[in-house]
Amino acid sequence: MEFAELIKTPRADNVVLHRPFYLAVEGTLCLTGHHLIFSSRRQDNAEELWLLHSNIDSIEKRFVGSLGTIIIKCKDLRIIQLDIPGMEECLNIASSIEALSTLDSVTLMYPFFYRPMFEIIEDGWRSFLPDQEFELLSSVTDEWRLSCINKEFSVCPSYPPVVIVPKSIDDEALRKVAMFRHGSRFPVLSYYHKKNGMVMMRSSQPLTGTNGRRCKEDEKLINATLRPGKRGYIIDTRSLNVAQQARAKGGGFEQEVHYPQWRRIHKCIERFNILQESLIKLVEACNDQSHNMDRWLSKLEASNWLTHIKEILTAACLAAQCIDREGASVLVHGTEGTDSTLQVTSLAQIILDPRCRTIRGFESLVVREWLQAGHPFQQRCAQSAYSNSKQKWEAPVFLLFLDCVWQILRQFPCSFEFNEQFLIMLFEHAYASQFGTFLGNNENERSKLKLPQKTMSLWSWVNRSEELSKFQNPLFEANSLVIWPSVAPQSLQLWEGIFLRWNRPSKFLDEAHEEMINIIKYNKELQAKVNALRRQLAEMETDDRMQENL
Amino acid sequence: QVEQVKLLDRFSTSNKSLTGTLYLTATHLLFIDSSQRETWILHHHIAAVEKLPLTTSGCPLVIQCKNFRIVHFVVPRERDCHDIYNSLLQLSRTAKYEELYAFSYNPKQNESEQVKGWQLIDLAEEYKRMGVPNANWQLSDANRDYKICETYPRELYVPRTASKPIIVGSSKFRSKGRFPVLSYYHKNKEAAICRCSQPLSGFSARCLEDEHMLQAISKANPSNRYMYVMDTRPKLNAMANRAAGKGYENEDNYSNIRFQFVGIENIHVMRSSLQKLLEVSGMKGLSVNDFLSGLENSGWLRHIKAVLDAAVFLVKAIAVESASVLVHCSDGWDRTSQVCSLGALLLDSYYRTIKGFMVLIEKDWISFGHKFSDRCCQLDGDPKEISPVFTQFLESVWNLTEQFPQAFEYNEAFLLQIHEHVHSCQFGNFLGNCQKEREELKLKEKTYSLWPFLLDEQKKYRNPLYNPDFSPELTLLEPNTVSFNFKFWRNMYHQFDRSMHPRQSVFNLIMNMSEQNKQLEEDIKELEAKIKRRNGQPDAVLEKEHQQSAHPAPIALKTPPCFKKEQPLIPVNDAVRTIEGSNTADNRYSEFVAEFSKAEPAVVSLEYGVARMTC
Asked: Myotubularin phosphatase domain: from which residue to which, for each copy (chain A) (predicted)?
């Protein structure tokens, strides 16, 4: 298919662009295969707006006489308005945008066409390989092994080719366990706590069904992670009720009789459509400036967004607590083990492991616990808050995770190497990007699409010093401790950087932030200078003394 | 003194507690726990003491403070508990001003310092700074002896054309004699903020002198002959007042006025609103939705927004239309004080400095007779007179500091400290209900002023991001009052609940850093001077020698004096590294560190999960 077929009117003049808190600008609108480009014609201050079609969440059109207006709502929550003279042009442009922003085939997406304008220093596709991770692990323990059982994605289609499992469990046993777990997602290592050797594993629900099926190998596998005489915890991210209902569909949970060394705790983290609705309601509330205080607060409440944040954080803290305080190993799962499970395991690592609070460590966490672990990004992030499609697999699972990280970052502003901008950038790229990183639903699909060969990795771009400097937290001082966030409602806040980003002018806040950075920079300069001067003076004094001794 | 008393964690669901000894002194309640940490509570801060039913571990005693601290003790013996309860009831309820802490507090200042302290804020000076007296405004001696209005200060500024009979006549037509006077004069716009109480208009009464008075105010503004009259009450309340012979201005009787209601609720609504807010925020195991709906039902943020909206309306009239504004409510000492002072704060950057903010409070709150004593319940009195009107003012200012982080010289700690002392009765400033009462109490001789003490510690209250010449446009602040900009003020209502605060404070860090920067700048100067002095020595051999020995001999390094000096750097470096605020100066978080660095035996009841552990 040629993009040109979809673009009936490639260019329109005298278009007026409206954005909140900016003056309206007149200019030319162009459509290309992947971008909507608006450039103002003013000579003095030419302005260009490039918008990826894949960033467009929904589009509305209105007509007043022959003047058409298109309102474009983006996945990054921005809303812009274009006034286009001429009914036909406007209709053409609107239908082109609509078609181009809802392309079916992944291989037509921009990442397959994007050619980087920067020099690639490090191939991001090879930056975070499981082997490296395992090497780190084997330097502290030899109880684990790297299994290639899933090499051709033959055992579990949503797992990566290699996984880390207990040494004492052979591939044959793994195959049996895979049969016993939903989507074949057998328990694998998610995190090893160096401090006390406790581990966190993740999986999907066991297929116990109504007649209480059991699998000896499954029991053996997870028991292999326990110290003699010690108990472990299974954190089921569903409420007991939901877990019980799952049995009717062949799913279920670990029964006490078969897993006597494990204590099961149910936490209620919501799923897909409930989360999606929550996002839609929240964004609606944030976008309406006319709400009085009561209405705003009740809308905020009705969205339930902060309740979800609290639930997810609480479950993650619980997992971390079991590992660090209780000295127990933990297995986390929900139903498929691709959504709430990953939220919990990845946030627990942020709390426990200082490495995950560095930029590289966080990237590695996203790769391990989200991309390789098979979070279906393409399905979940197909649409954002302005979608009207009722497809049930869209959900802001990853955004909720980022929001939780932001909440912890706010409570420990000096313990993270990255800043809020880094999290916002990840949110944007998860929904629309020139990079291939977040395409596909799992490693299997990514390898079929040949993404590493055909597209550029986000990490290749981010990990260059020019980009990194934007995402560095000037306050960062490595903190080797476990960080326990407060989950009291009074301590949780709306993430303004995402949800109010386009709804209020941020000039004063930005300038204050800049001032803060200047103070820190200045401090470093002064310290360096003082130290240099002292050294100089010390040298001079030493010389004097030597002189005297002579 | 009672031993073996337990202090319970307010939000803990598992009765986690500290054991220690409770002491009662003449002025404070003191609790020292087993690790020698002290909790001091001033008797005047105690708002309520409650004895709960006996439990197996002892007799619980809950103390609620006016600074929103809540402590929950368990006293092992009921008799002790009863004794403490009775003593606290007596000690926290003072009948006479002379028994308040301020009259016994002795900060070791000599008399001249005391006098100087009281002279620090000079309101005559402040009016001069605004540009009055001038061709249109003059100082009136009508109230020199508090004859016209007891609750106003002696010195009042009125339009030149308002003669004494007009003033007297107008005051008789105004509730409590509080006739229209100048609160703030805007030099560039030549417009004024004036304040008064409601007119005694009833359904039809009018008063020519009062009409003349308003005319005089509008004439005193050469740039716009129209003036606004803002009634800060909801229209319904104002209309109800007419039945009692009070009410609001009839636009037909006054020339050139534009009348406007702005709808701020009265002190009783505000009191119960705060009560509801505290009930919600004090709940154990609070869910997000209960918190948000509780916040909504309390109406607290709605009231804060109403106050700020009113101030924004006032500022627009002055800044955009150059029109003078007369503000009143019922008596003109609560809502009127809020709106006039916030309006001035938005218009004039002076009030956003530390000194200027003190002046603003002295002018619009203390001198114009906001009834601090009644509103803050300094003496045992009518509980219906208590109302958090001043707290709302501070909260509105805090909201502004959040929106304009660089526009204020002071920080949140300054606002919290003022709030603390409005209730502490430790200094004389906020005692009494009006200036006349303060003079009768001889506060200036018998007590000390708060302001010099705050100025002495101003390092603590400085906003490191403050930029005095930010940009000329910032003289006028135009806050965004869309609802989502108003946030729950956690550091006010949970100031003492440390587990809820961020574990690392960016603010303290930046503050320390900018302090350190000043020190470093000086160090550099000093070092450069030293080096220069040395280089200045005309010893050519030494110079040469210096160049040759690029590698200093390590043996000679017997701690040369300049290396010792590097010491002071280390604590500040520590501050940067501060984990969970272990910085001693930042004692708000110090408790927290101890709590988490101690490897306490992990007794974790998993039902409550982490929510229990961390809050």
From this structure: 124-499
Nearest Cβ partner of A519 from B404, B464, B541?
Answer: B464
**Complex confidence, ipTM:** 0.92
**C-alpha distances in angstroms, A91 versus A28, A63, A85, B549?**
16, 10, 10, 80
At residue B359, φ and ψ (nearest 5 deg) are -60, -45
**A286: closest CA among B189, B484, B143?**
B484
pLDDT at position A146 is 93
What sign results for the dihedral spanned by CA atoms B76, B78, B79, B84?
Answer: positive
Residues B134-161: what's their mean pLDDT? 93
CB A165 within 8 A of CB A145: yes
* Cβ neighbours for B398, distance < 8 A, ≥ 6 positions apart: B412, B415, B489, B492
Q: Are residues B66 and B132 in the same domain?
A: no
Q: Is residue B494 classed as helix, strand or coil in its secondary structure? A: coil
| Same-domain pairing of B81 and B147 | no
Peptide bond into B133 cis (omega under 30): yes
Tell me the residue range of the domain where B126 lies: 115-498
| Cβ contact B560–A542 (<8 Å) | yes
Percent of chain B, pLDDT > 90?
Answer: 55
Residue to mutate among B264, B273, B286, B288, with most A CBs inside 10 A, is B288
The one-letter amino acid at A488: A
Side by side, the strands of the sheet bearing A25-31 are: A48-52, A35-40, A25-31, A11-18, A79-85, A67-74, A56-64
Give CA separation, B513 vs A338, B123, B518, B569, in Å.
44, 35, 9, 11
Residue A534 within any structural domain of the chain: no
Which two three-digit tokens encode residue B466? 């403050």
User: Are B83 and B200 part of one and the same domain?
Assistant: no
Query: B414 pLDDT band (50/70/90 cuts)?
Result: very high
Residue A373 to residue A188: CA distance in whole angstroms? 10
Q: Are B404 and A508 in contact (CB under 8 A)?
A: yes
Residues of A with Cβ-Cβ distance to B606 under 8 angstroms: 233, 263, 265, 318, 322
Residue B74 and residue B58: Cα distance in Å, rounded? 6
> Tens of pLDDT along B348-360?
999 999 999 999 9
Sign of the CA dihedral with B65 first, then B71, B74, and B80 last: negative
Among residues A479, A475, A477, which one has the least CA distance to residue A521?
Answer: A475
Handedness of CA A169, A174, A176, A179 (dihedral sign): positive
Of A35, A32, A43, A38, nearest to A9 by C-alpha is A32
Task: Confirm or reject contact between B560 and chain A (CB < 8 A).
Answer: yes
Contact B100, B446 (CB under 8 A): no
* Cβ contact B487–A486 (<8 Å): no
Task: Say if residue B70 is in the same domain as residue B133.
Answer: no
Is residue B182 within a helix (H) or strand (E), and if so which, with residue range?
strand B181-186
- Cα separation, A265 vs A344, in Å, equals 13
H/E run at residue B190 = none
What's the rounded Cα separation, in Å, for the pair A467 and A460?
Answer: 10
Q: Profile chain A (550 residues) by mean pLDDT over runs of 10 residues.
A: 77 90 89 90 76 93 87 94 90 91 87 88 89 89 92 94 93 94 95 93 94 91 88 94 93 92 93 91 93 93 96 94 92 94 97 95 96 94 83 90 96 94 96 94 94 94 92 91 91 94 88 90 91 88 78
Query: pTM score, two decimals?
Result: 0.90
CA distance B524 to B536: 18
CB contact under 8 A, A300 and B292: yes
B76 & B221 share domain? no
A43 in Cβ contact with A24 (< 8 Å) = no
Strands of A213-328 (E only): list them: 232-236, 262-266
Please, where are the H alpha helices in B111-243? 111-119, 123-130, 164-172, 208-219, 235-242
* Same domain, residue pair A65 and A147: no
